[in-house]
């Protein structure tokens, strides 16, 4: 493996501010620290053309992921205004509510074994699991890797005509908030970039013109002003269990029906996770 990639990974993990306060979740449930040996090994799994060497861009991507993580945590704080899904299936504890044109869906499951915390995290964070064919949580094509826990995923079919195919690019991240809480940000908050990411693509300007999440207002108002889809998993290590809360907010605009379909698939995957892990 080229030494410059090791340097990039270690520099990212030692950045001040966000990287110190919200460390990336590790592959184990012990202390969350991913050592250099592990970083070197994991980077060997990626093709050279998807690895980003631009530390400034990686830092901007981190801030983007942090905003999404913070909003998801705030949205998960209470159940005010939610109603049980009208499907009437008591085995699918799905809740929803509407705020303007934003449709928020929520499901929470409990795995009755605290020792499964790391397994749950790794099962959901599956974007690079080439052996997994069913119950995939992180959907899309890998377009860029900053670290194994911060990537850009690419989706097609956001808007298609006879002459063009526009792709949606979005950040996915696995973030350790504390020793007992991990947030997995799914690739749904769209970056203001449509096209294919190649090695020389500089994403900084596209991150900068993508709408920011307001932090000085309440979470629901911030979500409405964001006017973009956002989704993620909040995974908590309890005394004798693991609690998984999935929040998925989608706007009633372009691609709404496809987004609802994808959300329903995620619900099914979560319920299967609770049964099978």
From TrEMBL:
It comes from the Eukaryota. Keywords: Signal. Residues 1-25 form the signal peptide. InterPro entries: PYST_A. This is Fam-a protein. It comes from Plasmodium chabaudi adami.
């Amino acid at each position: 493996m080229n030494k410059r990639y090791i340097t990039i990974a270690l520099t990212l993990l030692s950045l001040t501010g966000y990287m110190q306060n919200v460390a990336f979740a590790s592959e184990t449930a012990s202390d969350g620290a991913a050592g250099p040996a592990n970083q070197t090994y994991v980077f060997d799994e990626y093709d050279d053309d998807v690895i980003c060497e631009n530390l400034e861009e990686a830092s901007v991507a981190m801030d983007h992921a942090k905003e999404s993580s913070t909003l998801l945590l705030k949205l998960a704080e209470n159940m005010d205004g939610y109603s049980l899904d009208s499907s009437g299936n008591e085995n699918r504890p799905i809740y929803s509510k509407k705020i303007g044109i934003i449709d928020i869906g929520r499901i929470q499951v409990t795995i009755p074994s605290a020792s499964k915390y790391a397994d749950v995290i790794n099962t959901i964070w599956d974007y690079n699991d080439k052996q997994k064919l069913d119950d995939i949580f992180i959907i899309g094509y890998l377009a860029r890797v900053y670290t194994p826990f911060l990537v850009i995923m690419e989706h097609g079919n956001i808007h298609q005509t006879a002459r063009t195919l526009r792709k949606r690019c979005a950040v996915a991240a696995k973030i350790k908030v504390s020793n007992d809480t991990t947030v997995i940000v799914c690739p749904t908050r769209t970056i203001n970039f449509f096209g294919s990411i190649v090695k020389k693509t500089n994403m900084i300007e596209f991150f900068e013109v993508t709408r920011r999440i307001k932090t000085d207002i309440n979470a629901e108002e911030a979500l409405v002003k964001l006017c973009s889809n956002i989704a993620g998993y909040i995974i908590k290590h309890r005394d004798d269990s693991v609690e998984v809360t999935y929040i998925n907010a989608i706007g009633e605009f372009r691609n709404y029906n496809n987004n609802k379909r994808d959300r329903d698939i995620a619900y099914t995957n979560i319920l299967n996770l609770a049964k099978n892990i």
